Amino acid sequence: MTKGIIRSFLLLALLVFAAGGHAVESGPSNTVGFWKLEVHPGFTQVSFPLLPANKTLNNVLGNQLTGAATAAQSDQIHRWNPATGQFQVAWYNTGTSSWEGGFSTLSEAESYWIYVPSGHPATQTLVTFGNVVESATYNMGTMIPGYNAVGSVWASPASLSQAGLTAFQGGSYLFLSDLILSYDAATGGYSYAWRTSGGAWQGTLSQFEPLKGYWIYVAPGHTGFTWSSYPHPLPADAGLAPSGIAAPILPGAPAALPAFLPPAPQPVKASAGISPVKGGAK
Predict the structure, then answer these.
(1) Do 255 and 274 form a contact (C-beta atoms < 8 A)?
(2) What are 185-201's pLDDT values in tens digits?
(3) How far is CA 154 from CA 4, 16, 146, 207, in A?
(4) Which of 119, 251, 259, 278 is 20 to 30 Å from 69 by CA-CA measure?
(5) Phi, psi of 263 (to 5 degrees)
(6) How many other C-beta atoms lie within 10 A of the C-beta of residue 33?
(7) Which residue in 201, 212, 109 sits closest to 157, CA to CA?
(8) Which of these, 63, 62, 77, 73, lies nearest to 118 by C-alpha position?
(9) How many CB atoms lie within 10 A of CB 70?
(10) How far apart are the first and last CA of the chain?
(11) Per-residue pLDDT, 123
(12) Which candidate, 143, 79, 145, places its Cα nearest to that of 112?
C-alpha cells in the first residue's frame, strides 16, 4: 500500500489584531495564523490545531482535496466515533460543490484519517486559516473504554508529562496500561507511550505534536476518564523538536507495536475497503 505522509507543518504567520481591528473570523482568540500540510495516496492520521470560527468542512477545506461524483471515487476524511466503534466518512461532491457524508464539522480536539485513493495526485497541499487557542487549559472531553481519536489543540509541542493526563491509568506492564499511539504512514507502524503504575511515562512517544493524530486506548477493565484540563505547553516544552515542524510557533524512530499489545488500529489496503482500521472499540 502506498502510504500517505505529512511532509510539512508551517504556521507561516501569526497576526495579532487589536480589538476592533480587521480580523476576518470572529472567535475566542484574536490571534490567527495558518497551517499547511501535504497528503499523499493512502491513509494519513491528522489533526487541526488551528480552526476558524466556522469549522465546517466546506469552510475549512473547501475543494482542496480531490472530489468526485461518488464517495468511492473521491478523497475522503474519516472521523472515529468512539461511542459506536465505527467511522463516519465525509467526501467532496463535485456535482454539488460541497462536502457530504456522515459528519460536516471539525474539532481541534479530534484526529481524523485523510484517505487519498491510488491514482489521485501524488501530492496535495492543504492550507487554511484558523484561530490560535489562547486559553490556559483545554477540555478534551471524555475518553471511553476502547479507542479515542484525539489531536493536540496547541500550535507547539506538548510533553506527555505536562499534558494533564492525571486520570490516565498506568499498569505494572505495558499491556495493563492505557496507551497513546500514533501511526507513521511512512513505516506503516505505530509509536506509542504507556505509563507505569508508579506514574513514569515509557515508550517511543514523549509528546503531542501539532497536526499529528493520536489514539488514546483505554485498556480493558479500565473505566475511562475525563481529560478536562490539557494545559498550554510550558515554556520548557518549546525546546522539543517535532519532526516536520519548522520551529516552535508559540512559547512554550517510530516503532511497531509489540505483538502482545491489545489490538491496535491497523491500516488496510485500499482494495480491502475504505476503513483505515480493523475492529472497533473494545
Answers:
(1) no
(2) 777 788 899 999 889 99
(3) 23, 17, 25, 12
(4) 278
(5) -55, 125
(6) 21
(7) 212
(8) 73
(9) 11
(10) 27
(11) 95
(12) 79
pTM for this prediction: 0.76
184: β partners: 189
38: cell is 501535504
* Interatomic CA distance for residues 31 and 184, integer angstroms: 31
List the one residue out of 210, 216, 197 whose CA is nearest residue 147.
216
* Residue 221 backbone class (left: φ over 0; alpha: ψ -120 to 50; beta: rest): left
pLDDT, tens digit, 9 for 90 and up, residues 94-123 = 999 999 999 999 999 999 999 999 999 999
Here the cell at position 79 is 472521523
Burial of 150 (0-12, 13-18, 19+ CB in 10 A): buried
* Residues 38/8, Cβ–Cβ less than 8 Å: yes
